[in-house]
Amino acid sequence: MESPEAYRDPSLPAEERVRDLLSRMTLEEKAAQTAAPFGSAVDVHTPPEAGWGNATAGLSTLGLPPREAVHKANELQRKHVEETRLGIPVLLSEEALIGFKIRDATTFPDAIAQAATWDPELIEEMAEAIGTQMARLGVRQALSPLADVARDPRWGRVEETYGEEPYLVGSMATAFVRGLQNADADVPVIATLKHFLGYSASDGGRNTEPAQLGPRELREIHGVPFEMAIRLGGARGVMPSYNAIDGVPVSGSKAYLTGLLREEFGFDGLVISDLAAVGQLHTKHGVAEDDAHALAQALRAGVDLNLDNKATADQVVEAVRSGVLDEADLDRAVSSVLLAKFRLGLFENPYADAERVPETFDSDRERALARKIAEKSVILLRNEAVGDAPLLPLSPSLRTIAVIGPNADRPLGQLGNYSYQVLDSMTTRFHLAADPQARPEDIEDLAGKGSPDDARLLVESVPVVTFLEGVRRRAGDGVSVLHEPGCPVATEDRSGFEAAVRAASAAEVAVIVVGDQSGINGYGTVGEGLDSTECALPGVQRELVEAVVATGTPTVVVLSHGRPYVLGWMADSVPAIVSSFFGGEEAGNAVASVLFGDVNPAGRLPIAMLRSAGAAPLPYWRTLQHPTYVDGSIGAVFPFGHGLSYTSFDYRDLEISAEAPTDGVVRLSFTVANVGDRAGDEVVQVYGRDVIGRTARRARTLVAFHRVHLEPGTAARVTADVPADMFALWDVDEGWVVEPGVIKFFVGGSSAATKLRGEATLTGTDHFPGPDRALTSTVTVTAGAAASAAPVPQAVRPSAPPVTQDNTVREWLDHPVGGGLFREALGGLDEDVLAPALDLTLRQLVAYSGGQFPQSLLDDLLTKIGDHS
Fold first, then answer.
1. Which pLDDT belongs to residue 787?
2. Where are the domain boundaries for CATH 3.20.20.300 in the chain?
3. For 23-35, how does the pLDDT look when each residue is reduced to its tens digit (9 = 90+)?
4. In this predicted structure, what is the pLDDT of residue 808?
5. Tell me, which GO biological process terms does this entry list (predicted)?
């Protein structure tokens, strides 16, 4: 009598089912489970006899609406379950970073815009909506989110990240993972963190180039978001990066994929390679002598699925039979793939319920969520007065508005590169079957040069509200809205300048929408494989802005973009600047609601906009220190965490634990008050600095944040419990260490605007928290009475002597009024850089600083201190 098939028994532990099934598999069937074809380059709807382990982009490339796509998904699954010997289901995967990447699914704002909300709970809600849509179609793996820490604005993939700060990135990635994986308890899905590890630290910001990272930076900066999303979010998937770290390609490194990822970070899920990354161990990195040895190296390292259109199961079989690949290494990979499928319940529930699939995934609820995220992501970078009031919000008395610019009325000008519309429009044009690795030179005869201005929307999907449409809808019939594109995105074509200038001259206000075109290896100014040397507005867009400003018409610049720009020139000439990054399908409505004041902007920069691209890579904690160039600054025009509001907020009454043990928690409490006349959100930010350590520490690091809503004239008491573990450093010999000593804290509305400052002392001996160290702080908000919102008068104590230019820097910093004025004048510059100059007078500081501290700074200080006397 044939023994029962234990692997089909759902009551048994998944690990036991894996062992049983593996024991029944032929070498060919094992090899098939490591194969992961991509899109229609391999007809994923006609699998081989043994099937595949995974099929990626099998639905998106069909271009079908959901109710038709679900039948294709079920048919592919049926071929695996009913037409293969063992009935092993296939794992369907799609991209999902800014929405489920298929036709008729919601296109949310790009990841960098999501990060600008500083609202992880909102991103979790978005990911839950995406996960629900995936589950409906039977797609059980999302190749999202990115947990890469953006290090260099020149890198084209900054738009796909959650910014430059490890804690913010980790918080957002964790929220995405939780929302996606917990969307449907009956149909679980896998979130896949990418790109592990250090991918964003590539030389010169060039995509896939090597990263020169030491073990400390690797863990303290780049590893933290992955560790957070694995330990706190429970991420079940990881994709290794293309790059090499100090000469070791990650996709072939057992030290990274087994030692660091699985053993140190505790990951117990599925590792899928990036597209063709395994083959690059031979073709790009030269660490494997041929494709067979590259495959063997990757599987030994810890890769489970080989995402590659050219790789086949036959190659795996030949590698084993020739002795290049040990079958035990193949068994390990196959076991991981099978374990993932058992945990997902795919054997019991392989098919999607077609009756539950809606006509469109872009319902009113999803569109409202997309708009909410877009509205919360809008960043008011600058808002100077025109006449007697700030230019924004726009006056309700306006009767003529000019909406100008290449991205004002272009749907592709507001969508991220991994949106269905952008990627599938490109692949349709490429005629290369949805292969995002295709390069312009490969398709020149078919698709031209791949200019960003040749990008066209070539696929059907959800409606996209452009900025022009948004302004027209909000302005109403009584307002004349003029429109001129002015110029293309990238081409040096100035023929539209004259018409744009006429429109601006005829209007009471000009809204000029400039920025990027996203793409992948072509047809874009930003995106995967589209890196920059300058981080400047592409083409002649700067000239267009300058021409419009020269008309004298009050001008608002709206940036629809994927990377930070060098904007010093704009900040010096344009009264109002707004960033929406790539705001998704509802960007036009969202930005219009901010421009007209229906929404009070509260987005904050998740990555700084520098004064010079040549200074990059330049994390925010470095921008607050001394400049190091003879011909430029390392400062930021708009620093990390920056964003303005239509109201004003006051910080006061900081209380902080004087001491805490090295294995304890530091508690900070402070009051934030809305002292303006509009309701608004403030993103409170707490930064810390470990003053003395056995290794060099960052000058400032984000340790807590929270988005707080306040009605006008009200206040809230904010309490942040910051574990001492947040200041752990990596010691190559002893691992994670929290040392005793002084911790300085900085509290405020951005990394460069920290009005409240204090310190605490960590006491005791060195603490070694190990892998279970605390990775997050806890923030609680208690609303206060309206009366408590009244600002506390800041007056000089009667006993405080006046200060002049002949007082020392130390005396100014210690002065009850002069100290605050001096720190404000520094513009966020960390005052610790003044340590060598504490005993210089202000007059001497100006004379000896080589222009860093100009006479105008001194004159301004003396005027302000005089006003307080």
1. 36
2. 14-345
3. 999 999 999 999 9
4. 75
5. glucan catabolic process
- DSSP letters along 31-65, please? HHTTEE-BGGGTTTTS--TT--SEEESTTGGGT--
* HSE, side-chain direction, 13 A CA sphere, residue 578: 35
Gap between the Cα atoms of 638 and 649, Å rounded: 19
| pLDDT at residue 40, rounded to an integer | 63
Distance in angstroms between the alpha carbons of the first and the last residue of the chain: 100
DSSP letter at 565?
A: -
* Residues lower than pLDDT 50 in the chain: 1-2, 431-434, 441-448, 787-799
State the virtual CA torsion across 596, 599, 602, 606 in degrees, nearest 10: -80
What does CATH list as the number for 649-789? 2.60.40.10
> According to the model, what pLDDT value does residue 716 have?
97
- pLDDT score recorded for residue 1: 37
Chain center to CA of 649: 26
| H, E, C per residue of 759-778 | EEEEECCCECCHHHCCCCCE
> What CA–CA distance (Å, rounded) separates 341 from 801?
74
Asked whether 48 and 83 are in contact (CB, 8 A), the reply is: no
Please spell the DSSP secondary structure of 104-146, one letter per residue. Answer: TS--PPPHHHHHHTT-HHHHHHHHHHHHHHHHHHT--EE---B
As a whole number, the mean pLDDT across the chain is 91
Q: Where are the beta strands (DSSP E) in 453-540?
A: 480-484, 509-515, 518-520, 526-528
The closest alpha carbon to 487, from 522, 517, 449, belongs to 517
Nearest to 110 by CA among 483, 434, 524: 524
Query: How many C-beta neighbours within 10 Å does residue 772 have?
Result: 10
| Closest to 771 measured CA to CA, from 333, 399, 289, 223 | 223
Residue 431 tokens, joined: 């005629």
- C-alpha 499/C-alpha 513 separation (Å) is 15
Topology (CATH level 3) of domain 14-345: TIM Barrel (3.20.20)
For the chain, residues classed under CATH 2.60.40.10 are 649-789
CA separation, residue 583 to residues 98, 293, 591, 788 (Å): 10, 44, 9, 37
Looking at the chain, the domain(s) classified CATH 3.40.50.1700 span 376-627
Among 95, 93, 38, 103, CA closest to 421: 103
Please tell me the pTM assigned to this model. 0.92
- pLDDT digits 0-9 by tens, 301-353: 999 999 998 888 999 999 999 999 999 999 999 999 999 999 999 999 999 99
